[in-house]
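Allow me, if you will, to draw on your knowledge of protein folds for a short while. I have a record of one protein: its chain in single-letter code and its fold written as discrete structure tokens. I should value your view on which stretches of the chain appear to form regular backbone elements. Thank you for your consideration; the sequence and its tokens are set out here:
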Amino acid sequence: MSWRALCKFELNAIFTNPSILFTVFGGVLIYSFLYPLPYSQQLPREQQVVVVNLDNSQISRELERMVDATPQIQLAARAPGIEQAKEILNAGTVEGLLVIPEHFSRDLLLGKSPTLAYAGDAAYFLVYGSVVEGLTTAGGTLGAKAKVSRMVMSGENMALASEQYSPIKLSMQPVFNPTMGYINYVVPAVFVLILHQTLLIAVALLEGGQNEYARQGKNGYWRQYPVLKVALVRACLFVLIYLPLVMYYFGFSFSFYQINQLATIPDLLAVTVPFLLAVIFMGMIIGQLIPRRELATVVVLLSSIPLIFSVGFIWPVSAIPAPITALVQLVPATPAIHAFLRLNQMGADFEQIIHLWGQLWLQVAAYGGIALLMYRNRNTQ
């Protein structure tokens, strides 16, 4: 009945279960490379576009060269008309089409505002946004050049005209995502969700297997010890197993992908401990509820995609229905993701996430209490 004997039983149950080992170590390590791999270039570059030049003037051809020179766009083809360009676009060989209207150069020189038309698949928002950014940059540069030329012809000094062609100058500096890329945008939050889901599956697998034995009338070591002692030992062991994995994600992986690291180690540890405990106790509850242990993986994985879009880092919280926002507050990943993002990516002080830290500890107390009650009911059956 000693603590040491119980620890040996628990470690043996964990490290002799291949499903748990693959979920914990294989899942965390594989996803650390597999998930960010498609986005290692941060932003789409050299997206192929077909151009329809209905003006065929020197200025319109200059615009073509400027568009092709942007890092976002590569002019892959030219079409004589819009219908031919649509056929090329629908064939999937290009990502968009650009139409330069008739009288483009005349309107530009007269100070009018010609309209450039672009069509593409907005479902791929990163690709679509990159192409629009390249077109906007090229068009704005050509427009500024034309305005400076008109100012010089009207008698303005060249240097003064270059400075005054626009009444407002923008100086944009990204704050929390300096590269404006996908990795800094979503990977830090998804890494927390990966830790959440793999730990939840691992604990539920262990609990579900022991729950199966209990329903078959078999007597395991977990029924020979007080329920509080079993729960504490199990929770402590899983925390000790996952702490190096958390350090691997927030240490090596963040450095490898050049993700912002602004939080201090004590602050990260202060959030990590209640986060892991809350997930472990929730896993104990799920393991007690499922009739077969393999259902743990199914239940948790099915919740992953809805959880990604409901937590509030892909879609803004203001755009998510209030009932869904309230429901996901029950999931430990929700306060943990927001706490880690504010500390590590936004440089917030710990006092600014104290309410999220308190929410995690409330979940620890609530889920821990429910897990102990379910343990007690199982042992008395």
Notes: The chain has 15 helices and four strands. The radius of gyration is 29 Å.
